[in-house]
Structure formats: structure tokens, C-alpha cells
Amino acid sequence: MMPKHYDAVIVGAGPNGIAAAITLAQAGRKILLVEARDTIGGALASGEQTLSGFIHDLGSAIHPLGVGSPFLRKLPLERYGLRWVYSPIPLAHPLDDGTAVLLQRSVAATAAGLGQDATRYQRLMSPMTRHWETLIEVLLGPLIPPPLWPPQHALGLAAFGPLALLPARWLANTMFRGIRAKALFAGLAGHSVLPFNSPASASFGLVLGMLGHAVGWPFPQGGAQSLANALAGYLRDLGGEVVTGQMVHSLAELPPARATFLDLTPRQVLKIAGDQLPASYQHALGRFRYGAGAFKVDWALSGPIPWQAPGCEQAATLHLGGTFAEIDQTEAAVMRGEHPQRPYVLLAQHSRFDQTRAPLGMHTVWAYCHTPNGSNVDMTTRIEDQIERFAPGFRKLIIARCVSRPSDLEAWNANLVGGDVGGGALDLAQVIARPTLSLRPYRTPLPGLYLCSASTPPGGGVHGMCGYHAARAALQDGF
After folding, report:
1. SS (H, E, C) the chain
2. Over 70: is that where the pLDDT of 430 sits?
């Protein structure tokens, strides 16, 4: 690496590292972004996983938080090639009776498919959807709000907060009566990677449902890498420098800079900076807990998935797990260290809506289920059984598959510790203490060293807000 002097060096070019770099570059700082892999984006990446011509997302695949992010949605990324693809229906949740619960952009249209819970669903989701911009500013804002917070932000949090703090099981059983609404909410809340009796597990279902109505659940045309490339293009036009294929083993390897930002989880922070941090802070980082792992499979298919339930063919994202009770039991089993026979599966079928993903007439499919962190159990058959359950004949279409165990995901991206794709467990305690209990979570005891990964507030997801807040903290420090 050339011995230049920079205002800031950012280690790790995931969405948060890039967001930190962009925020600092917008403020006129001279930036160097360093990435270990040959491509930028971290888990925001795509490539030919199975066969030539089949483009699969290697990590994240569907991006409601990306299109709704207070940071990302203000950037001119369309100038740099980003095109969002929207399926007619954001989300489908098939059931064993041959029907599917459909989350549509319209709250009323969604409610119409929920039978006896139609009015209850509208009462729950309509106010949040109307005020989604305020709520997302609050929910993805800093843990400690600024002193001059707009009054509507405080009012929004007051209205949403009591519901968000509830366990998903309590909210579903109290709010809804029928199988369909509960199943829809279970699939949404399952993104929390928490047992449904955990405080605040309801918040994930509420936020993702709200975003589905407000902005949809889109994905980048051509693969998730397109979003990463657009961000990098914008950063370069701001004057930022990007170096790839450069593994950093120690802070001493970095060129001189007034500040250093680490888009790394606590385990990697300790590896490259531990010897310069106070023992108490090292101990606190060492206690950071990682969440469940992901077992991911990508397929190349000779045709589209033959879903049994009408409407599934119109949705880019599907939740496969049956009823609320079934998904509740499945996710609780994972948290106990077990491997369910019928796992809750999150599936994306991009090529139905983006013809750049596969050769004409053929298709790609992306799916994963939760496993205990670091698990080596092969879940391929169980995942395929779940797809076959709702789409008889699926297996006959498979022409190639690529399996990514939790250890494979970590080997590909060291931030995915044990296959944890969220940067650490997101239970209520670790939302508050992320990565340590501090009013200044982005700042470390080492002057000029900041953390900006998903292991800081507000946590996982492709939104860039962890990096944005870290950069703002540094600028407030007079950097």
C-alpha cells in the first residue's frame, strides 16, 4: 500500500464501510477504502455460483431497507447504473391448503386476504405505513438521539415503541385470530433470528411489513453487486480511493491517517487492533455474542418454480414455513442448538423479474434457513423438501446447485462469524449494548479509531446507517 497520508482510512468495504467513506468524502475529507476481497460490497455481492450465465446473489438478496434507507435513498445511485426491480407482489407466504398469504403494496389489498383479521391488520399497519419515513428515521437513527430531534420523530417513536418492544408471539396472538395473518407475521418476524418469545422480536415483523407496503421489497437489476458498484462509483467521483485485494492484519499496516474506521465485527477488531486497546475494552468486545448461522443454497433451474398457490409466481420473496406455530417452534429449536426437520426457509426468485440473471427460459433461486451458529449439518435436503412441499415438481427442474454452509460463508467473508449474517445477535440487550454498553458505540478508547460495522447500532441489513452514524460521530469530534 502506498505511504500516502489520508484524512481517514476505512477497513472493510461492506455497505457500512462504503457509507462511512461516502459521508466523510461528502464532508471534504480525503478517504482511502481498503477491502480484503477482490470486489467491494462485503456480503453485497453476486456472481456465477452454479453455471455460466446464472447470476446468484452471494449474500443479501432482497433490499427493503436499502431502498428505504434514510442514507442510501438520498444518493444519486441511478447515475451509476443502479436499477431497482420490483415484483408485482413484494412477498408471498404459501400454506398447506394450496393458498398463499400475499403482502401487497396496498395495506387494504393485503388485509382483504386475511379474512377475519382484515380490520385488525389495517389498524395495525396503516398508521405506520403512512408515517414510514419518520419511523425509519427513528428506527435506523443513533441509539441516543441528538438534542434537536424533530418533534415528529419523538412522537413516531412513542407510537411505535410499545409495539416494537413486544415479543412476536404475544403481538400475533393478541392482535390476530386467524391462521393467515399470524402466518404472514411469523414469516416477517422470522427475520429477527430470535425466538418469538424474545422482547422486541415483534419489531422486525412490523418494520419489514411496513416497508413492504411503503416502498416494496426490491432488488438490484443484474445482481446485488450492482448496488455495491454504484456506491463505489459515487465514492470515487467524490474523490475517494478504493483498494481491493488488500488484507489488513494490523493497524500498523495502514498508511498515516487522522482517523481509522473498521467495518469489522468485534472478533476481527480484536485481531487487528486488540494490542492497542485497553484490556477492559478488549474484554467487552470478547463478550459480544453472535447470532444463529445461515445455511444457503443457490440453484440453477430449467424452468420457473411450479408453485401450487396462486400469487407465488408474482412475488420475488417467499417465506416457507407454514403456520405461525410451526415457524415459532422451528426458530426456537434453532436457538436451542437444534436442526429442525422442516426449517423456516427464506427464498428469492430473482430471474422471474430480472432476465439478466439467467439464460432465456431458465431461472435462478436463492434460499437459506437458520442453523445454530457454526453448524456443519447439511440442510440441503430439508430446504428442498420445504420448497417441494409448496411447489411439487421443484426438484425435477434442478440442473445445478451450490451449497454454502455457515463455515463457507465465514470463509468467504470473515464478518459472517459462524454464518451469522446480521453482525451479531439482535436481541434487545445487544441492541442496547452494541458492541459494548456505551453512549458512544462508534468510538473506541483508542483516539481516532471508530467502529462502523453492523455490530454497531442500528445493526444488520443493507442500509449503510452504521457507517453513516460512525462518520457523523467522527465529524462531531472535530475530525
Report:
1. CCCCCEEEEEECCCHHHHHHHHHHHHCCCCEEEECCCCCCCCCCCEECCCCCCCCEECCCCCCHHHHHCCCHHHCCHHHHCCCEECCCEEEEEECCCCCEEEECCCHHHHHHCCHHHHHHHHHHHHHHHHCHHHHHHHHCCCCCCCCCCCHHHHHHHHHHHHHHCCCHHHHHHHHCCCHHHHHHHHHHHHHHCCCCCCCCHHHHHHHHHHHHHHCCCCEECCCCHHHHHHHHHHHHHCCCEEECCCCCCCHHHCCCEEEEEECCCHHHHHHHHHHHCCHHHHHHHHCCCCCCEEEEEEEEECCCCCCCCCCHHHEEEEEECCCHHHHHHHHHHHHCCCCCCCCCEEEECHHHCCHHHCCCCCEEEEEEEEECCCCCCCCHHHHHHHHHHHCCCHHHHEEEEEEECHHHHHHHCCCCHHHCCCCCCCCHHHHHCCCCCCCCCCECCCCCEEECCCCCCCCCCCCCHHHHHHHHHHHHCCC
2. yes
